[in-house]
């Protein structure tokens, strides 16, 4: 993602990152992701891989026992096909394996691995878990899927090489956060079953704060910038802009749409010219809902840092995949209503980004460079997702897109979605991580479908109490949650 500021992003991930050396275990039996076809030019990302840019931080792989209760769990770490890994198996293993997929790591060379935030729940209930660093950084979901699956397939070899031969898992599950939610969503797709070099027949999935609309996320980023420029009176003539053009337009937008952007980038700091932009971003990110106005200012620097992106997702693709031609900008009317004359004029005049045909097309060497989340499952499996209402980096509109795709493919009954009243990205309490994963596992094993939220009915989402049902306030988000409006039942 060209333009992403790694430190700014990490500062917003107040839930997933906070909760979440020597080599051991070679882990054979897996298939390394193949080199690109020699008939195709290398993308920037493929060149980085070929140049050996990415390095596993092996000194960060070892991990201690969680607590005295699980002091005797088997804990293994190592490197598998260029990706670091951690694996943990409790003494009373129930025969099931949960794969955890981490989120976006920025564009540096250091590869690191997280333990899942729900680690204690997994061990308490007898589940083994495994997590990969992936063999690359950047927005390389292809590597995330392949390396996570390769690690799952190597689980028994790793165990045997570490002196604890185990039976093959009876069930494989996958969960992940942010980009890792994209990994989890793509891993259960029919297209992945048909094209991945490493495929795992997962019994269920729990993507959290995930990029469930795949490349539609980057359409959203671009629509943000194009509308920002237009409302500031300095519209783009075309897409992409050069970084210099984007920087110049951003400076004008900050001066025009905010009274003093540096001192107060929040909603109450907008000028009258900025008020339509506030409404537009609300609708681009999922429609009227609680928490949105309180989150607006906290994401402006991050979203504006993406201006100047050329649509190749920082070199993961060779050509631009961004397309805004299906996006409708609203700032006076509700979703589904006819556009007002002012909105119609705005939509007619704003520059459009048009993706290059085939920029992220199917390949003959495995998955697409950015795997699709088509909403077309490879099997009848349960999927439970969770998303915060205030997230503007990976907005809840990603979940709406996923619901629409699952419904269109006849898999709507396999999806349960939940919303949480929190302001940040992946801003979940530990209880919310745990209850989401548990809901999916219980559904798959006991056949009882859990309840969820309706994310497609605007009137439901606009209710001041929307999101109350599955919000479980608690650590580590006690400070930011204290600023959220209370539910009427509280």
Automatic annotation (TrEMBL):
Coiled coil: none annotated. It comes from the Bacteria. InterPro entries: AB_hydrolase_fold. The keyword Lyase does not apply. GO terms for molecular function: hydrolase activity. Keywords: Hydrolase. Residues 26-46 are annotated as: Disordered. The keyword Hydrolase applies. This is Alpha/beta hydrolase. It comes from Halopseudomonas pertucinogena.
């Amino acid at each position: 993602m060209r333009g992403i500021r790694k430190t700014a992003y990490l500062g917003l991930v107040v839930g997933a990152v906070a909760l979440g050396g020597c080599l051991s275990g070679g882990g054979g039996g897996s298939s390394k992701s193949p080199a690109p076809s020699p008939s195709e030019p290398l993308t920037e990302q493929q060149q980085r891989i070929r140049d050996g840019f990415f390095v596993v931080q092996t000194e960060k792989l070892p991990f201690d026992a969680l607590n005295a209760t699980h002091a005797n769990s088997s804990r293994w770490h190592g490197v598998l096909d260029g990706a670091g890994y951690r694996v943990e198996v409790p003494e009373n293993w129930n025969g099931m394996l949960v794969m955890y997929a981490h989120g976006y790591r920025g564009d540096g060379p250091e590869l690191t691995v997280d333990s899942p935030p729900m680690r204690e729940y997994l061990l308490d209930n007898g589940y083994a878990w495994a997590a990969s660093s992936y063999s690359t950084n950047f927005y390389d979901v292809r590597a995330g899927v392949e390396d996570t699956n390769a690690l799952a397939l190597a689980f028994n070899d790793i165990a045997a090489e570490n002196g604890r031969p185990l039976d093959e898992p009876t069930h494989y599950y996958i969960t992940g956060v942010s980009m890792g939610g994209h990994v989890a969503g793509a891993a259960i797709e029919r297209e992945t079953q048909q094209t991945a070099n490493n495929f795992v027949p997962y019994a269920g999935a729990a993507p959290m704060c995930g990029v469930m609309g795949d490349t539609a996320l980057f359409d959203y980023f671009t629509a943000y910038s194009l509308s920002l420029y237009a409302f500031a009176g300095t519209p783009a003539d075309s897409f992409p802009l050069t970084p210099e053009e984007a920087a110049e337009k951003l400076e004008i937008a900050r001066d025009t749409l905010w009274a003093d952007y540096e001192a107060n980038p929040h909603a109450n700091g907008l000028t009258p010219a900025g008020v339509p932009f506030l409404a537009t971003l609300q609708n681009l990110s999922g429609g009227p809902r609680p928490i949105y106005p309180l989150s607006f200012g906290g994401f402006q620097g991050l979203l504006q840092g993406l201006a100047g992106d050329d649509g190749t997702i920082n070199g993961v693709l060779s050509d631009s995949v961004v397309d805004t031609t299906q996006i409708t900008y609203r700032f006076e009317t509700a979703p589904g209503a006819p556009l007002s004359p002012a909105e119609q004029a705005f939509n007619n005049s704003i520059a459009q980004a048009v993706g290059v045909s085939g920029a992220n097309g199917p390949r003959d060497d495995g998955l697409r460079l950015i795997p699709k989340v088509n909403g077309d499952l490879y099997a009848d499996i349960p999927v439970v997702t969770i998303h915060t209402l205030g997230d503007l980096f990976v907005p809840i509109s990603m979940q709406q897109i996923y619901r629409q795709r699952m419904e269109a493919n006849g898999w709507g009954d396999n999806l349960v979605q939940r919303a949480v009243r929190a302001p940040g990205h992946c801003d979940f309490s530990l209880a919310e991580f745990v209850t989401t994963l548990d809901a999916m596992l219980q559904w798959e094993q006991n056949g009882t479908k859990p309840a969820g939220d309706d994310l497609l009915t605007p009137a439901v989402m606009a209710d001041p109490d929307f999101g109350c049902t599955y919000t479980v306030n608690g650590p580590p988000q006690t400070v930011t949650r204290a600023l959220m409006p209370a539910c009427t039942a509280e």
